[in-house]
## 1
Amino acid sequence: MSKAVRRVLPGFNLSLGYTLVYLSLLVLIPLGATFLKASSLSLEQFWAVVTTPRVLASYKLSFGASLIAGAINAFFGLLLAWSLVRYTFPGKRIVDALVDLPFALPTAVAGIALTAIYAKNGWVGSLIEPHGLQVAFKPLGVLVALVFIGLPFVVRTVQPVLQDLETELEEAAASLGASRWQTFRHVVFPALYPALLTGFALAFARAVGEYGSVIFIAGNIPLVSEITPLMIITKLEQYDYVGATAIAVVMLVVSFVLLLAINLLQGWTAKRTGRES
């Protein structure tokens, strides 16, 4: 008869109990209260609140800009992570530290800084606006802010996988006559894809709920540059708590569906490539 293994953490039942209580207090109960508050509206009232032209425009901007920002961060985050892992260059540690700056920087400070740079009289804005490209107080400004705050999620997710990826595999592929593109496509990318997809999902999730860094550079022009979190804040300032929770429910459902789809795609990819744990 095998001897029971003594574990450092408490047993399964106790650990599961702590986990469920902690998860309920921080996530399930607040979300449940949101749905319960929104249920005080009839279906017609709920639909009228969440489908006004102003709110629909905010959905389009928030989710559309978040998806685009996630895709941009996935591409450039991969390049940055690759450079930090595979190359040695002067100032590498400084660049590596700067990647985490959006994590530590207060979002309001980030918004003010981006606005100062991309405004009409800013360092960058003064150069590009004469050519007809306006960033501040436009949807493009929202995209710039979301890219800024989402980049670290991709870099820090992909970087450990790259560090563990053996370069001998790439050398073996090259010795067998594979080109650089073929080596990347058939050897490197399949190993990085799950982590890259996870980084994209994290960047998207952060971008959807971002508020502080966006409101300054967006300008908050109705039907043009208003994000959905701002619509919720506006409802709360008007003491329309039911309307605010109705919009929040839509954001929760859409975000959950998109993240679930990303996770299913990640699981399908892992199963297809034989990396399922």
## 2
Amino acid sequence: MPFSFKKRSVLPGFGLTFGYTLFYLSLIVLIPIGALFLKSSTLTGSEFWATVTAPRVLASYRITFGAAFIAAFFNLFAGLLIAWVLARYEFKGKSILDALVDLPFALPTAVAGIALTTVFSVNGWLGKPLNALGIHVSYTPIGIIVAMIFISLPFMVRTVQPVLEDLEKELEEASATLGATRLQTFRRVILPVLTPSLFTGFALGFARALGEYGSIVFIAGNMPMKTEITPLLIITKLEQYQYAEATAIAAVTLIISFVLLLFINWVQWHNRRKYSL
């Protein structure tokens, strides 16, 4: 029997659609990524290593990946809470609140950066009381985290909200009828269903935060070794015509991001398989 990776289907057109899919992904994704690695390969091994392990570059990695992880972790809880309110309750102004969730999608990142910088500046609406408490947001790593939280929140909400809306309330009622507390119902009935979407939302938010540039450069202050993110460092290298160095840093960032996302997807697959058994 000849080997075939295609499952039998009553729908025609697999060859044409699959070919178009491969062509489109190659054109939009694989070719640019291949060009990135090809350009970085113009450096010798020692030059590549010296570029990607320079103290300034390592500091940007720590700031970028650390802030992105904290922002995604914060949105894991905040996004779940917002999705829960939007999916489970009816109240006046719900449509407005629902639309506000998508605002970071439509708002230009530069506008978001200016708005956040204004609000959290020393004399801003939120920055002034926070500074009085000794909490400085603008031009600090905290500002980077705030900007990443802002732009990545919709990914978590929009990933979890449909799952909550489709979750049968009869399961919760049955759990309560059998004597389970609200916490036990959430932990044993609701959470297992939400876990795959939570991991998906976390991964999407984390990836979005890693690539953010426009909103962060305004609020971060862009101080090397302190508040300089990796995308900004790449832009700086490009402006200095150091194209090979810029692509080398970008390649390392891409590899680390891919490995982290692959791990998150593996955990998500493992949990889905566990709860489906």
